[in-house]
Amino acid sequence: xxxxxxxxxxxxxxxxxxxxxxxxxxxxxxxxxxxxxxxxxxxxxxxxxxxxxxxxxxxxxxxxxxxxxxxxxxxxxxxxxxxxxxxxxxxxxxxxxxxxxxxxxxxxxxxxxxxxxxxxxxxxxxxxxxxxxxxxxxxxxxxxxxxxxxxxxxxxxxxxxxxxxxxxxxxxxxxxxxxxxxxxxxxxxxxxxxxxxxxxxxxxxxxxxxxxxxxxxxxxxxxxxxxxxxxxxxxxxxxxxxxxxxxxxxxxxxxxxxxxxxxxxxxxxxxxxxxxxxx
Length: 279
Prior knowledge:
- This protein is mainly α.
- It has helices at about 15-30, 35, 45-65, 65-75, 75-95, 100-105, 110-120, 120-135, 140-145, 150-170, 180-195, 195-205, 210-215, 225-260.
- It has one domain.
- It has 14 helices and no strands.
Protein backbone atom coordinates (compact mmCIF):
# COMPACT_ATOMS: atom_id res chain seq x y z
CA UNK A 1 0.00 0.00 0.00
CA UNK A 2 1.19 3.52 -0.83
CA UNK A 3 2.24 5.11 2.46
CA UNK A 4 2.67 8.63 1.06
CA UNK A 5 0.41 11.22 2.68
CA UNK A 6 -1.29 13.66 0.34
CA UNK A 7 -1.86 16.74 2.43
CA UNK A 8 -2.06 20.45 1.64
CA UNK A 9 -3.45 23.75 2.82
CA UNK A 10 -7.12 24.21 1.91
CA UNK A 11 -8.03 26.83 -0.70
CA UNK A 12 -11.73 26.02 -0.93
CA UNK A 13 -13.41 29.36 -1.78
CA UNK A 14 -16.44 28.48 0.36
CA UNK A 15 -14.23 27.87 3.38
CA UNK A 16 -12.01 30.91 2.83
CA UNK A 17 -14.95 33.12 1.90
CA UNK A 18 -17.01 32.00 4.89
CA UNK A 19 -14.25 32.62 7.43
CA UNK A 20 -13.32 35.95 5.81
CA UNK A 21 -16.98 37.03 5.78
CA UNK A 22 -17.31 36.17 9.48
CA UNK A 23 -14.29 38.34 10.30
CA UNK A 24 -15.57 41.22 8.15
CA UNK A 25 -19.06 41.14 9.70
CA UNK A 26 -17.58 41.18 13.20
CA UNK A 27 -15.27 44.07 12.26
CA UNK A 28 -18.19 46.10 10.91
CA UNK A 29 -20.33 45.46 14.00
CA UNK A 30 -17.66 46.44 16.55
CA UNK A 31 -16.25 49.17 14.31
CA UNK A 32 -18.27 51.44 12.00
CA UNK A 33 -21.69 50.18 13.18
CA UNK A 34 -20.87 50.36 16.89
CA UNK A 35 -22.19 53.91 17.21
CA UNK A 36 -25.61 52.73 16.01
CA UNK A 37 -25.74 49.51 18.01
CA UNK A 38 -24.36 50.85 21.30
CA UNK A 39 -23.67 54.61 21.22
CA UNK A 40 -20.82 55.66 23.50
CA UNK A 41 -19.25 52.22 23.82
CA UNK A 42 -15.47 52.18 23.22
CA UNK A 43 -13.88 49.86 20.70
CA UNK A 44 -13.57 46.44 22.43
CA UNK A 45 -9.84 45.84 22.00
CA UNK A 46 -9.57 42.81 24.30
CA UNK A 47 -12.72 41.21 22.88
CA UNK A 48 -11.52 41.74 19.32
CA UNK A 49 -8.16 40.11 19.99
CA UNK A 50 -9.87 37.03 21.41
CA UNK A 51 -12.38 36.84 18.54
CA UNK A 52 -9.73 37.15 15.83
CA UNK A 53 -7.63 34.50 17.60
CA UNK A 54 -10.68 32.26 17.42
CA UNK A 55 -11.08 32.97 13.70
CA UNK A 56 -7.40 32.22 13.03
CA UNK A 57 -7.56 29.00 15.04
CA UNK A 58 -10.73 28.00 13.19
CA UNK A 59 -8.92 28.36 9.88
CA UNK A 60 -5.93 26.41 11.17
CA UNK A 61 -8.28 23.58 12.17
CA UNK A 62 -10.20 23.69 8.88
CA UNK A 63 -7.66 24.90 6.35
CA UNK A 64 -4.30 23.52 7.44
CA UNK A 65 -2.96 20.07 6.45
CA UNK A 66 -4.71 18.80 9.58
CA UNK A 67 -7.92 18.81 7.52
CA UNK A 68 -6.51 16.37 4.94
CA UNK A 69 -5.14 14.13 7.69
CA UNK A 70 -8.58 14.12 9.32
CA UNK A 71 -10.56 13.61 6.13
CA UNK A 72 -8.40 10.97 4.47
CA UNK A 73 -6.19 9.18 6.95
CA UNK A 74 -6.75 9.46 10.67
CA UNK A 75 -9.68 9.50 13.08
CA UNK A 76 -7.27 10.76 15.75
CA UNK A 77 -6.47 13.80 13.59
CA UNK A 78 -10.21 14.28 13.10
CA UNK A 79 -10.76 14.29 16.85
CA UNK A 80 -8.09 16.96 17.18
CA UNK A 81 -10.05 19.03 14.67
CA UNK A 82 -13.34 18.56 16.51
CA UNK A 83 -11.90 19.37 19.91
CA UNK A 84 -10.05 22.46 18.70
CA UNK A 85 -13.32 23.78 17.28
CA UNK A 86 -15.42 22.83 20.31
CA UNK A 87 -13.05 23.55 23.19
CA UNK A 88 -10.82 26.35 21.88
CA UNK A 89 -12.42 28.19 18.97
CA UNK A 90 -15.91 28.39 20.48
CA UNK A 91 -14.92 29.86 23.89
CA UNK A 92 -12.50 32.27 22.22
CA UNK A 93 -15.20 33.56 19.88
CA UNK A 94 -17.74 33.81 22.69
CA UNK A 95 -15.25 35.70 24.86
CA UNK A 96 -14.64 37.94 21.86
CA UNK A 97 -18.25 39.12 21.74
CA UNK A 98 -18.77 42.26 23.88
CA UNK A 99 -21.87 42.27 26.07
CA UNK A 100 -23.50 45.14 24.18
CA UNK A 101 -23.17 43.22 20.90
CA UNK A 102 -24.68 40.06 22.38
CA UNK A 103 -27.55 42.08 23.85
CA UNK A 104 -28.19 43.65 20.44
CA UNK A 105 -28.16 40.22 18.75
CA UNK A 106 -30.20 38.25 21.26
CA UNK A 107 -32.04 40.56 23.67
CA UNK A 108 -33.23 43.60 21.72
CA UNK A 109 -34.09 41.47 18.69
CA UNK A 110 -37.08 39.21 17.96
CA UNK A 111 -34.82 36.26 18.84
CA UNK A 112 -35.00 36.99 22.57
CA UNK A 113 -37.93 34.65 23.47
CA UNK A 114 -36.25 31.83 21.55
CA UNK A 115 -32.80 32.45 23.00
CA UNK A 116 -34.19 32.48 26.55
CA UNK A 117 -35.13 28.84 26.05
CA UNK A 118 -32.25 27.71 23.82
CA UNK A 119 -29.54 29.08 26.13
CA UNK A 120 -30.83 27.48 29.33
CA UNK A 121 -28.40 24.86 30.72
CA UNK A 122 -30.74 21.92 30.09
CA UNK A 123 -31.21 23.03 26.47
CA UNK A 124 -27.54 23.61 25.75
CA UNK A 125 -26.64 20.31 27.40
CA UNK A 126 -29.07 18.42 25.17
CA UNK A 127 -28.15 20.34 22.01
CA UNK A 128 -24.44 19.70 22.49
CA UNK A 129 -24.72 16.10 23.65
CA UNK A 130 -27.19 14.98 21.00
CA UNK A 131 -25.59 17.00 18.21
CA UNK A 132 -22.10 15.71 18.99
CA UNK A 133 -23.28 12.12 19.30
CA UNK A 134 -25.37 12.04 16.11
CA UNK A 135 -22.45 13.17 13.96
CA UNK A 136 -20.46 10.15 15.13
CA UNK A 137 -22.98 7.63 13.81
CA UNK A 138 -20.92 5.77 11.17
CA UNK A 139 -23.16 6.38 8.15
CA UNK A 140 -23.37 10.13 8.91
CA UNK A 141 -19.73 10.51 9.89
CA UNK A 142 -18.43 8.63 6.87
CA UNK A 143 -20.73 10.66 4.61
CA UNK A 144 -19.00 13.81 5.79
CA UNK A 145 -15.60 12.26 5.06
CA UNK A 146 -16.68 11.68 1.47
CA UNK A 147 -17.73 15.28 0.85
CA UNK A 148 -15.68 18.31 1.89
CA UNK A 149 -18.72 20.62 1.86
CA UNK A 150 -20.56 18.33 4.29
CA UNK A 151 -17.36 18.00 6.32
CA UNK A 152 -16.96 21.77 6.71
CA UNK A 153 -20.69 22.10 7.41
CA UNK A 154 -20.30 19.49 10.15
CA UNK A 155 -17.65 21.62 11.82
CA UNK A 156 -19.71 24.80 11.50
CA UNK A 157 -22.52 22.98 13.32
CA UNK A 158 -20.01 21.80 15.93
CA UNK A 159 -19.01 25.42 16.40
CA UNK A 160 -22.64 26.53 16.82
CA UNK A 161 -23.53 23.87 19.39
CA UNK A 162 -20.24 24.52 21.19
CA UNK A 163 -21.01 28.24 21.42
CA UNK A 164 -24.30 27.21 23.01
CA UNK A 165 -22.70 24.80 25.48
CA UNK A 166 -20.24 27.42 26.75
CA UNK A 167 -22.92 30.09 27.19
CA UNK A 168 -24.10 29.09 30.72
CA UNK A 169 -20.48 29.20 31.88
CA UNK A 170 -19.27 32.37 30.15
CA UNK A 171 -22.21 34.71 29.55
CA UNK A 172 -22.21 38.19 31.07
CA UNK A 173 -25.51 39.25 29.49
CA UNK A 174 -27.88 40.19 32.36
CA UNK A 175 -31.02 39.15 30.48
CA UNK A 176 -29.51 35.75 29.61
CA UNK A 177 -27.50 35.12 32.79
CA UNK A 178 -25.36 32.30 34.09
CA UNK A 179 -27.15 29.88 36.41
CA UNK A 180 -26.23 29.50 40.08
CA UNK A 181 -22.73 28.20 40.74
CA UNK A 182 -24.08 24.83 41.90
CA UNK A 183 -26.02 24.43 38.65
CA UNK A 184 -22.87 25.28 36.70
CA UNK A 185 -20.95 22.61 38.59
CA UNK A 186 -23.58 19.95 37.93
CA UNK A 187 -23.70 21.04 34.29
CA UNK A 188 -19.92 20.73 33.83
CA UNK A 189 -19.88 17.39 35.68
CA UNK A 190 -22.58 15.89 33.45
CA UNK A 191 -21.24 17.06 30.09
CA UNK A 192 -18.43 14.45 29.86
CA UNK A 193 -20.82 11.78 31.14
CA UNK A 194 -23.20 12.62 28.30
CA UNK A 195 -20.43 11.73 25.83
CA UNK A 196 -19.44 8.41 27.41
CA UNK A 197 -21.43 6.33 24.91
CA UNK A 198 -19.54 7.90 22.01
CA UNK A 199 -16.18 7.64 23.77
CA UNK A 200 -16.78 3.99 24.61
CA UNK A 201 -18.00 3.05 21.14
CA UNK A 202 -15.00 4.61 19.43
CA UNK A 203 -12.37 3.47 21.93
CA UNK A 204 -13.46 -0.14 22.42
CA UNK A 205 -15.04 -1.05 19.06
CA UNK A 206 -13.83 -4.40 17.74
CA UNK A 207 -13.68 -3.18 14.14
CA UNK A 208 -12.95 0.07 12.33
CA UNK A 209 -16.17 2.09 12.54
CA UNK A 210 -15.69 4.31 9.51
CA UNK A 211 -15.03 2.64 6.12
CA UNK A 212 -13.09 5.62 4.73
CA UNK A 213 -10.27 4.93 7.18
CA UNK A 214 -10.13 1.14 6.75
CA UNK A 215 -7.71 1.13 3.82
CA UNK A 216 -5.97 4.43 4.60
CA UNK A 217 -2.28 4.35 5.50
CA UNK A 218 -1.67 5.32 9.11
CA UNK A 219 0.66 8.21 9.86
CA UNK A 220 2.40 6.89 12.96
CA UNK A 221 0.52 3.85 14.31
CA UNK A 222 0.56 0.26 13.18
CA UNK A 223 -3.04 0.10 12.01
CA UNK A 224 -6.29 2.03 11.81
CA UNK A 225 -7.84 0.19 14.74
CA UNK A 226 -5.12 1.55 17.01
CA UNK A 227 -5.65 5.02 15.56
CA UNK A 228 -9.38 4.70 16.31
CA UNK A 229 -8.74 3.60 19.91
CA UNK A 230 -6.35 6.51 20.41
CA UNK A 231 -8.97 8.87 18.99
CA UNK A 232 -11.57 7.64 21.47
CA UNK A 233 -9.18 7.98 24.41
CA UNK A 234 -8.20 11.48 23.26
CA UNK A 235 -11.86 12.48 23.02
CA UNK A 236 -12.46 11.34 26.58
CA UNK A 237 -9.40 12.95 28.14
CA UNK A 238 -9.71 16.26 26.28
CA UNK A 239 -13.40 16.56 27.12
CA UNK A 240 -12.75 15.92 30.79
CA UNK A 241 -10.01 18.56 30.79
CA UNK A 242 -12.09 21.08 28.82
CA UNK A 243 -14.97 20.90 31.28
CA UNK A 244 -13.00 19.81 34.34
CA UNK A 245 -10.75 22.88 34.55
CA UNK A 246 -13.72 25.32 34.58
CA UNK A 247 -15.38 23.03 37.14
CA UNK A 248 -12.42 23.46 39.50
CA UNK A 249 -12.29 27.24 38.96
CA UNK A 250 -16.02 27.67 39.55
CA UNK A 251 -15.91 25.46 42.64
CA UNK A 252 -13.22 27.69 44.20
CA UNK A 253 -15.21 30.82 43.33
CA UNK A 254 -18.37 29.35 44.83
CA UNK A 255 -16.52 28.36 47.99
CA UNK A 256 -15.16 31.89 48.32
CA UNK A 257 -18.57 33.47 47.73
CA UNK A 258 -20.20 31.28 50.35
CA UNK A 259 -17.53 31.48 53.04
CA UNK A 260 -15.60 34.66 52.33
CA UNK A 261 -12.43 32.59 52.66
CA UNK A 262 -9.91 30.92 50.41
CA UNK A 263 -9.56 27.13 50.40
CA UNK A 264 -6.67 27.36 52.88
CA UNK A 265 -8.82 29.34 55.33
CA UNK A 266 -7.51 32.85 54.74
CA UNK A 267 -10.15 35.63 54.59
CA UNK A 268 -10.81 37.08 51.18
CA UNK A 269 -10.49 40.79 50.61
CA UNK A 270 -13.83 42.58 50.30
CA UNK A 271 -15.98 39.43 50.65
CA UNK A 272 -19.17 41.41 50.10
CA UNK A 273 -18.15 42.14 46.54
CA UNK A 274 -17.78 38.43 45.87
CA UNK A 275 -21.49 37.97 46.37
CA UNK A 276 -22.41 40.17 43.42
CA UNK A 277 -24.38 38.17 40.90
CA UNK A 278 -21.99 36.21 38.68
CA UNK A 279 -19.22 38.79 39.13
